[in-house]
Structure formats: C-alpha cells, structure tokens
Automatic annotation (TrEMBL):
Subcellular compartments: Membrane
Positions of transmembrane segments: 306-327, 355-378, 928-949, 964-984, 1014-1036, 1056-1076, 1083-1101, 1121-1141
Domain of life assignment: Eukaryota
Swiss-Prot/TrEMBL catalytic activity: ATP + H2O + phospholipidSide 1 = ADP + phosphate + phospholipidSide 2
EC number in record: 7.6.2.1
UniProt membrane topology term: Multi-pass membrane protein
Designated name of the protein: Phospholipid-transporting ATPase
Keyword check for Metal-binding: yes
Domain P-type ATPase C-terminal: 900-1151
Species whose genome carries this gene: Sphagnum troendelagicum
Family note: Belongs to the cation transport ATPase (P-type) (TC 3.A.3) family. Type IV subfamily.
Length: 1236
C-alpha cells in the first residue's frame, strides 16, 4: 500500500508551478554565488538545530514580546513618558521643593495629587501592557510537534523552537515560526494557508513544497533527513523570499510559494511538515511589527502652547511678587519690631533683601502653581476614552449585514474628526463595493453582454433619459452605424442569480457560444478564464457545489464566469489545473492542463501568465493584464481584433467597468526548453538582482501574443455614496478621489457619485499625448523624462492660467491627473503649482496612482494647505495614505483588514463617514474645546486669588487656603462636572447636525478654540477671581463676622472664599452646558455638596492634621448669615457678565447653533417660518459638487433659453427624484412646504 502511494507521489519529475525542470549540473553551477554577501548570508541546517547553538549560526530564540515594558523597564520608561508633559514636570519640581522650608504647602498636599494623576496614567499604561503580556504569554505557550530524533515527534512550546527544527503543524493551527514547507498530507505537497493576520486578506493562498521533499510525508521518514538552506537574511517583505534548498546533492530554488509565515494559519489541509528558518523577532511578521505613526491633535498641540503661556504668567507674577517682597523686606521690615528683624531667618532678613527675594521666588513658583491644571491631561484621557465608546456603540454606524460596528481604534484624535477640511478617498472598495460582477466581454472583436451599469444609468440621466426605462431595457450600440442608441427589451433567461456573475446574453449562455463566429477563439477565451489564475476550489461536502477562494474579487468573478460559460474549474494539484468543459458531443468532460510555469501578477508587471501543457502535449502561454501592457506584447499577427476590442474597452471604461485584456501564444517544445533554462537560472539566483532577472526572463516569453478579447467587471457603488458625498460637500468638505483605475473608469465613477457633473469643465493632465508617445517610440529614457516633465509643467500652467481668466462662479472646474503625470508633478519644483491648481478646482480625481503616490499626494495637501486631511480606504494599497493623513479611516471591506489595522477609526461603509464627521466629529470638537477652555478658566479663577491674598499680606508667602483645599480643587471638587461636559455636551442633537451641515464648519474654522476665545475665557477667569476675592474680603473686613461680634480670621476668610469659588466655577459650567442629563446635574450640584461634606468630615479630624480646617464649618462659618449671603451673591456677580455677553450674542450676533437651538427649543419654525427659511438657506455651504449641485445646475440650465435640450416642462425624472431626496433630508421636526 505504501509503495503504491510512493509511486503515485512521484508522478512528475517536473519542478512545477515554480516553472522549473530538474536543473542540470551546468545550471547548478551557474547558481548565483551571492550567498554570504550583504542580505543573503543565512544558512540553516535542517534537522540539526544543535548546530545553531554556536556562532556564526546562532540565531534569535522564538520567544516573542510585543509588550512595551517589562518588570525592570516599566517604572523608568513610564515615568519618562509622564514627565515629558511640561505640566507634570512642573508639578514634580514643585513637589520636590515642597520638602524644603520655603514651600508654602505641606509636602503631602503637593505630592499626593501628583502621585494620583501620574499613577492613574501609569496604571492605564500598565493595564494595556499587561494585556499585551498575557497575549504574548498565550502565544509563546502554544504547542507544536517537533522532531526530536529517530523519526519521533514530541509536543513543544513555541518559545522553545530553534532554527533548523522540523515541525508538524496540524489543520487550523497557526505556524509557530517562518517555515520552509517540506511536504503535506496531500500527495502533491500542497496546502492552503490563511494570511489574514499578516495582510488582512481573507482569501486562502496555495502553498507548495519543493518537488524533491514531497515524499517526506510520514514522521518516521525524518529520522535520517538532513538538508541545508541558504537564503536571505531576516527582512520585513511578506511577499518575497530568495533561497535554495540543498538536498540529496540537488539544489532546488525556494520562493514565497514554499514559505509558511508565522501567524498565518493552515486551512483545509490535515497537516504539513516544515523546517524553521526564522524565529522570534526575526520572523517576517515581527519585522513588520512597527508602531503606527504618532499623531497628536491640533487642539492638544495648542493646549501645550496655552500651558507655556500660563507658565510665563506664573513666572511673571512670581517675579513681581518677589521684587515687591524684597523691597518690603528692606524698607519696612526694620520697623516691624514685633517680627524681631534682628533675629530672623534668611527669607526675612532686611540686611540681605536680594536673597530674601530669591527665596520668595521659589515660594511663589510653588504657591501660584494652581494656575496650571494638574488634572487636565488625565481628565482629557478619560473623556476621550468615553467619547470613543459612544462612537463604538452608535447603532446608526452599525452594519448589520456584516455585523460590523464603527470602531475608534485610537481615542487621541476624536476632536480632529470635527476639523477635517479635505477627504482623500480610495475608489475601489471605498466608494464602490469591491464585489465584482462579470458583466460584459469582448471576444474576437464582438461585444457580448447586455447588462446595465450604474454609471450607464447616470450617463442616461445626463442625456435626459428616464432612468426607470433602463430597468426594463438596455442601451445597445447600433452595429450598422456605431453611433445610435437603441432601446431593446431584454429576454428573461430564467437563470437563478449567481454571485459574481451578472452577465446577460443568450448568445453565449447555455452552450450557444458554439454557434457564434470564431468558436475556437471563444473556447480559448473561456479556457484562459478557467486556467490563468491562482484560485482554489472548495467543494461543499453536503451540496457538492464548488466555491472558489481567490486572491481578489476580480479573479473570483473570472473563475465563476468560466463555470457559467461551461468551463468549470474543479480541481487544482501542485502541477495541474482540471477543467470540466464541453466535449465534442456536448457532454462535459474533464481536461487536465499541466502548469509548467506561473508568472505572477504584481503592480509593476500589471499582468499574469501561465505556461501550460494540455492533454495533446501542446504548450500554451495564457496571459491576462491591463490592455496597455498586453498591446505592447501582441505579435504582428495577433492584432486581428485589436481595433474593435479597443473600441469596446473604451465603452466599457465609459460605463465604469474594470477591464482586462486576454491573450495567448502557442510554444514549441524547443523554444520552451530554451526559455526555461534562462528562467531556472533566474529562479535559482540568490541576490538583489533576482527580480530583475526574472522580469527579463518573463519578457522573453510574454511576446508575440494573440489577442483573444477583453473582460469587463462591474464594481458597484456602495449604498448611499452619492447622498453621503452630497451632504459632506454641503458641510464644506473637499473630496479628492485617488484610484488605481484607468482614467475613463475614474471619470465615470465621478459622474455616478456626482463628484463630476454636466457643465463642469475638466482640466485633464495626462501624458497620453503625441509628443510623449513619439519620444517613447525612440526609447531614450532621458528624452522621455524631459518631454514628459515639460508637458506636465505646461499643462499645469495652462490650467492655472485658465482659472485666472475664468471669473464665472457657477462654472466649476475638475482636475483629472494620471499617475504617470504625477511622477513629475510631485517633484519639488512643480508640486506647489499642482497644489495651487488642485485647491481651486471643485473636484480632484487622480487615476492610475500607486500606493506611494497616494501617500505623497496626502502629504502634499496636508503640508501645503496647513489644513486637516482625512484619508479613507479599504485595502493594503491605502495604508500609506491612511497613515500619512491627519486622520486615517479604514473600511472593513472585501480586501481584508490591513487598512483597518493601520487606521485611527474604522467603519463598515463609506456612508457612515457622514455621521462620524458631522455628528461625532462636531460634538467631540466642541466638547474638548469647551472643556479645555473651562479648565483654564477655573484654575485662573482659583489660582489668582492666591496672588491677590499674598499682595494683601505684603507678599509674605502666606496661603489663605488650607493645604488640602488647594490640593483637592482639581481632583475632587471640580473634576467630575468638566468630565461630564466633555462626554455628554451637545449644542444640537444628532438629527439637527445632519439637517444643518454648515454647523460642521465651526470645526475647520476653529471657532471654539481660537486664541481670542481662549483669552476670553482667561479674562473671564481673571474677572471671577477679582470679584471672588475683593467681594469676600470687603464684606468680611468691614464688619463683625458673627453675632458675637468677632471678626473673621484668615481661616474663616479662606473657607468662605473657597466656598464662593466652588460655587462660581460650578455655576459657570452649568451656564455653559447646552444639553443637560441627570449625570451632569448630579456631578455639578454633587460637587458643591461634596465640598460641604468634606468641610464637616475633615473638620472633625484632629487639629494637628486638619489644621486651619478644624470644625471650620460647624463652629465658625455655618452660623454666619454673611457666609451664606456671599455664597449666593459672589456666584451671581461672577457669572452676570457672561450671561449678559451670551444674551448679546444670541440677540445681535447669533452663531448658527444659537439660532438652531432657539428654533428647536421654542418651536419658532411654526411661528416664524421666514426666519426658519433664512436659517435653512445658510445651513448648507454653497457647493459645486454633489447631487444637490447637479440638480441645481440642471434646473439653472433649464431656465436658460439657450439650453433647449433641458427646457422640458417638468424636468427629467432624475431631477425630481433628486429633489425628492433632498426634501426627505429636511427635518421631520419642521413642517415646511417647498415651493414648486
């Protein structure tokens, strides 16, 4: 039985799928000798891990740690992080000085609050890192079977693995390290791998072992196994690998197909054997484990400036007080005999006033420290975490179909969501669904498929056609003229819907293709669809149906299309693909195509090819790729159908479809063997030039192709995209689209989602012009670059000149630029002109751009405009853009989770971006802005009373408040209300935010955090401090404090003044809040009540501890009517100017939210509809893009006599639908009749 299986395993001596025959001795000698050189020095002794215990072959252990700290480094590193904040550093200095005799406070009153604030932040860090540690511990403790000796495998923890160990990994388990696959449970040595944890891709990948190790599929066969691997050094590239395996005196090349990476999972395969090549931190996943870029919000950066400003004020008043104290000490101290100036300490020595003033400066720096809020940072952290929870739990951003909620992956940037100026968006999977449907095709010069795309429907609307007619008919080219548009009813085929296949054309379905002209070309077209791919078939054991795991939605659509046309892909082995296709008698038969070589697709090649041998021993090269790339490789006899195919491709592009061209060539045996020799040499090269050699080898065979046809798949717009773009535009946001699609497709998607519209003039910057094409024909790269650069500069300059001459406000411009042009436009001497042109255009669409160019454009907009940018995408190619933008949004799409993993926030659909920005962004921005302003207000109110009293006491350093009053001011008596403000405040409801999108512009214009507003709050704090101090002091010093005739002491004065300040700051926050909840009431009035309870409880403690607070309320203050009168009078006097100012604003200079609040709360839309109409008109920014702008432009054109085409009595149906949608967006709270 075993021998039978062994012979079956050796069915092929071909080095398949890597495209390799067994290398000859001559070829083996030609293997590159780059080993040992830079980047290619690793040597692995397979099954001999003991050799890796000593240098130079000693490598890192397999223990992995993602924790930021350990037991030794936690305190020094965490403390360093905390005291990088200037406020914490100041309070650390103050706490240290409190241990000296010059401190006005007891050490505990300064040290304990600092310990609390820093401790909370460090505790948060520790908790997060402890979770990482537990996660690491779980991973490092996972088990895997490792070969020990004599063919015996034992279970071992991952962390004990060494380079060279042979391991056995079972189904549905993760790979413990980077392995070279040796064999699997399948006879052909293949396995299926899920790489979601690495690149976010959910599709299964096919891996295969080297041909010579396939037979090692039993544990006992590894008893005498020894081999040597020479390969590249550890690096972060997930998709490349260069190495050789020396086994049984044979050298076999190793590539990415033979490597199983740590953290990927074995799927649909019972087991595999592999040898460890990289461990621990040297694995590719850990090499990629870099921290995301550090992003700080602009408000936080300005907050640092405010703290520096307050610190300057603190130093200034300290210096003033110290100078005054020095002068007083010199001039007045000698006459104060009761202070014994002849026997005093240095701080009060009239003989040395300079030293006295210097010592007083230290005292003052500590005394006035309450100008700087110690709890500000920790309060903001708490608020942002809670704000993030509201975003995470918003059901209006939950996508039930995929069970995906919105996620705030970082809470540091919540307020930035309300300040976005420019959105830079990917197209595929972001604006569109990334769920491809095979819709049309062109074969042998004939167009097939009568499906209608959303873009075609939008185009018909632009021509004034009723879109409802398109649901029952299709636009088909009049083949006789090539120009007319004929409406033809579609036949109902009765076929059930198939995911990925929306093709409707009875000429090709149900085997009717055999009756078409050139059936042999159609057959080859279908075979290319069924063979030229890397998809994996999966059969459902219950139903017997086959589904496909493909590396992209496009590829899955092609394989499904091949099946629906009768060429079903049913099985893949390591060396072949099996199709079930129609036989000569119409009955399905299985045909095997041996895969000799696979030339994989990448963004540089823009094509994929396979070399196959059919059952008749004919060798074919099958190729699919971008039409421009395929055209360059067509032979003289292969362009038979090019002209007609090119026309069809143009129409497919106009329809917003994604296209690929298909071609093939027949190879003779001798030509193939000669080419394969070159290919083997390139494959077995170990060095930096390997990719270049492989590309040259590919170019040798990918030539003289015969064009078969082209495919067209549709990537539909996501639900709600046009409406979302329209409302974002009304909120004043600019939207740029950055896509890798061709220009025609990008333009038509722009029309479909109303980024472009009829009448919008397009400035197209492209290198598809005669001058550049002529230069390319000569092949001189320097000349091509010069002509291209000059052309791009001229086109940009021309666009700027056109804008200067154009003074029509209602004639918007759109900039469309391709990736080739961006190569030169993003150069230092031209990028400013590009940006100047782009920001003056209503729409910007960049097509054919690379991932790097997306990031460069984002950086250009961010740095060039100085305004906040948001990048949004769903794929790995969007990661650079997402990380470069001020805010990165990842969409949980078909392309996996890599964009989400790199993002700051994630959503399931583009349509949720509106609510994330217009609602949560607006709220968070206003909450944080008001919260910080109020924080500084209350600290100035409190802190300056210390300065006034010191001046009142001849700058003696005397403190009016008990030490614990001061210490608990920020921590206990005023902290909870400001946190509630930051979490719950709403100037308007979420519904009103969406109905009045112009409110959003308060964020980009920074209305609530300008220096004028910040200084206004500070001035309010100065005023409140003056009133609180002088009103209380004036009331208490001119008359008896109590009925027994006693005057108030410093203790009573301090207690009364502190009580008034607690009332003032809490009443002020109550007046600042627009939206009250029971929590805010509890926190505000509870904080005041807590102060009284503290006075009672703390006053009962031994006077040695409570000092000046001993029974201060129960025996001194509570019996004084003046105390209670001041608790009412002072807050009223302090907040009165604020109330008058707010009343003035609302009456004579109202802001948008003031009017909306008044309308909403007093129902003035019923009593004063004209005011409501005026406010409604202001509620939307004047925009030149979006559905509303398109409808308004159409209506305007209809009113113009020259535009007779649009002069229809009732307008197109599309216009009325659009207007209807706009009306539906209006508030259901306001019953307003629209004018006809």
């Amino acid at each position: 039985m075993a021998s039978t299986r062994k012979s079956r395993l050796r069915f092929s001596k071909l080095y398949t799928f890597g495209g390799i025959f067994k290398p000859s001795n001559a070829q083996r000698a030609e293997v590159s000798t780059s080993l040992g050189g830079p980047g290619f020095s690793r040597v692995v002794f397979c099954n001999q891990s003991e050799k890796h215990n000593l240098k130079p072959y000693k490598y890192s252990s397999n223990y992995v740690s993602t924790a930021k700290y350990n037991v030794i480094t936690f305190f020094p590193k965490a403390l360093f992080e905390q005291f990088r904040r200037v406020a914490n550093l100041y309070f650390l200095l103050a706490a240290a000085l409190s241990l000296t005799s010059v401190s006005p406070y007891s050490p505990y009153s300064l040290i304990l609050p600092l310990v609390f604030v820093v401790g909370v932040s460090m505790g948060k860090e520790a908790l997060e890192d402890w979770r990482r540690f537990l996660q690491d511990k779980e991973v490092n403790s996972r088990n895997v079977k490792v070969h020990m000796q004599d063919g015996k495998f034992e279970t071992t923890a991952w962390k004990k693995l060494k380079v060279g160990d042979v391991v056995r990994v079972e189904k549905d388990n993760f790979f413990p390290a980077d392995l070279v696959m040796l064999s699997s449970s399948y006879p052909d040595g293949i396995c299926y791998v899920e790489t979601m944890n690495l690149d976010g891709e959910t599709n299964l990948k096919l891996k295969r072992s080297p041909e010579r190790t396939v037979e090692l599929d039993e544990e006992t066969e590894f008893g005498n196994f020894q081999a040597q691997i020479k390969c590249e050094d550890p690096n972060p590239s997930l998709y490349t690998f260069v190495g050789n395996l020396e086994y049984n005196e044979e050298i076999m090349p190793l590539g990415p197909q033979q490597v199983l990476l740590r953290d990927s999972k074995l799927r649909n395969t019972p087991f595999v054997f592999g040898v460890v090549i990289f461990t621990g931190q040297e694995t590719k996943v850990m090499q990629n484990a870099t921290d995301p870029p550090s992003k700080r919000s602009r408000i936080e950066k300005r907050m640092d400036s405010i703290i520096y400003f307050l610190f300057t004020i603190l130093v200034l008043i300290s210096v003033v007080g110290s100078i005054a104290f020095g002068v007083t000490t010199k001039l007045s101290m000698p006459s104060w005999w009761y202070l014994r100036p002849d026997d005093t300490v240095s701080m009060y020595d009239p003989k040395n006033p300079g030293l006295a003033g210097l010592l007083h400066l230290i005292t003052a720096l500590i005394l006035y420290g309450y100008l700087i809020p110690i709890s500000l940072y920790v309060s903001i952290e708490i608020v942002k975490v809670l704000q993030a929870q509201f975003i995470n739990n918003d059901l209006n951003m939950y996508h039930a179909e995929t069970d995906t909620p919105a996620r705030a992956r970082t809470s540091n940037l919540n307020e930035e969501l309300g300040q976005v100026d420019t959105i830079l968006s990917d197209k595929t999977g972001t604006l569109t669904c990334n769920q491809m449907d095979f819709l049309k095709c062109s074969i042998a010069g004939v167009a097939y498929g009568r499906g209608i795309t959303e873009v075609e429907m939008a185009a018909a609307r632009r021509l004034g056609k009723d879109p409802r007619m398109l649901e029952e008919s299709t636009i088909q080219e009049d083949e006789s003229t090539g120009a007319g548009i004929e409406m033809m009813p579609m036949r109902q085929t009765g076929r059930p819907p198939v995911k990925g296949f929306n093709f409707k054309d009875e000429r090709l379905l149900d085997g009717h293709w055999v009756h078409q002209p050139n059936p042999e070309v159609l057959q080859m077209f279908f075979r290319i669809l069924g063979v030229c791919h890397t998809a994996i078939p999966e059969e459902d054991e219950r139903t017997g149906m086959i589904s496909y795991e493909a590396e992209s939605p496009d590829e899955a659509a092609f394989v499904v299309a091949a099946r629906e046309f009768g060429f079903e892909f049913v099985k893949r082995t390591q060396s072949s693909v099996i199709l079930q296709e129609p036989g000569h008698n119409g009955q399905p038969i299985k045909r095997e195509y041996k895969i000799l070589n696979l030339l994989e697709f990448n963004s540089t090649r823009k094509r994929m090819s396979v070399v196959v041998k059919d059952e008749d021993n004919q060798i074919f090269l099958m190729c699919k790729g971008a039409d421009s790339v395929i055209y360059e490789r067509l032979g003289n006899g292969g362009k038979t159908y090019w002209n007609s195919t090119k026309e069809h491709l143009a129409k497919y592009g106009d329809a917003g479809l994604r296209t690929l061209a298909l071609a093939f060539r027949r190879l003779d045996e001798a030509e193939y063997i000669e080419w394969n020799t070159v290919f083997v040499r390139a494959k077995t090269t170990i060095g930096s030039d390997r990719d270049e050699l492989l590309e040259k080898a590919s170019d040798m065979i990918e030539k003289d192709l015969f064009l078969v046809g082209a495919t067209a798949v549709e990537d539909k717009l996501q639900i709600g995209v046009p409406e979302c773009i329209d409302r974002l535009a009304q909120a004043g946001l600019k939207i740029w689209v950055l896509t890798g699609d061709k220009q025609e497709t990008a333009i038509n998607i722009g029309f479909a989602c109303s980024l472009l519209r009829q009448g919008m003039r397009q400035i197209i910057v492209s290198l598809e012009i005669p001058e550049v094409i002529a230069a390319e024909e000569f092949g001189d790269k320097a000349q091509i670059a010069k002509v291209s650069r000059d052309s791009v500069r001229q086109q940009i300059t021309s666009g700027l000149h056109q804008i200067e001459l154009d003074h029509q406000e209602d004639a918007p411009l759109a900039l469309i630029i391709d990736g080739k042009s961006l190569i030169y436009a993003l150069e230092d001497d031209m990028k400013k002109d590009l940006l100047s042109l782009a920001v003056q255009c209503a729409s910007v669409i960049c097509c054919r751009v690379s991932p790097k160019q997306k990031a460069m454009i984002t950086r250009l907009v961010k740095e060039g405009t100085g305004k906040l940018t948001l990048g949004i995408g769903d794929g790995a190619n969007d990661v650079g853009m997402i990380q470069e933008a001020d805010i990165g949004i990842g969409i949980s799409g078909v392309e996996g989770q890599q964009a989400v993993m790199a993002s700051d926030f994630s959503i399931a659909q583009f349509q949720f971006l509106e609510r994330l920005l217009v609602v949560h962004g607006h709220w968070c921005y206003k909450r944080i802005s008001l919260m910080i302003c109020y924080f500084f207000y209350k600290n100035i109110t409190f802190g300056l009373t210390l300065f006034y009293y010191e001046a009142y006491a001849s700058f003696s350093g005397q403190v009016i408040y008990n030490d614990w009053y001061s210490s608990l001011f920020n921590v206990l008596f005023t902290s909870l209300p400001v946190i509630a403000l930051g979490v719950f405040e709403q100037d308007v409801s979420s519904r009103v935010c969406l109905q009045f999108p112009a409110l959003y512009q308060q964020g980009p214009k920074n209305v609530f955090f300008k220096w004028r507003r910040i200084l206004g709050w500070m001035a309010n704090g100065v005023y409140s401090s003056l009133i609180s101090f002088f009103l209380v002091v004036g009331a208490f010093e001119i008359q008896a404090f109590r009925q027994d005739g006693k005057l108030a002491s410093m203790e009573e004065l301090g207690g009364a003044m502190y009580t008034c300040i607690v009332w003032v700051v809490n009443v002020q926050i109550a007046l600042s809040i627009s939206y009250f909840t029971i929590i805010q009431h509890a926190f505000i009035w509870g904080s005041i009540l807590l102060w009284y309870l503290f006075l009672v409880i703390y006053g009962l403690i031994n006077p040695l501890t409570s000092t000046t607070a001993y029974k201060i309320l129960t025996e001194a203050l509570s019996g004084s009517p003046l105390f209670w009168l001041m608790a009412v009078l002072v807050p009223v006097a302090c907040v009165l100017p604020y109330m008058v100012y707010q009343a003035y604003l609302r009456m004579f200079a109202p802001q948008d939210h003031h009017l909306i609040q008044e309308i909403h709360h007093q129902e003035k839309h019923l009593r004063d509809p004209e005011m409501y109409r005026q406010e409604k008109l202001k509620s939307r920014q004047k925009t030149k893009i979006g559905l509303s702008a398109r409808v308004e432009a159409t209506m305007s054109m209809r009113r113009t006599p020259e535009t007779e085409f649009y002069d229809q009595p009732h307008g197109t149906n599309d216009d009325h639908v659009a207007l209807s949608n706009m009306r539906e967006m209006e508030s259901p709270l306001f019953d307003v009749q629209w004018e006809s």
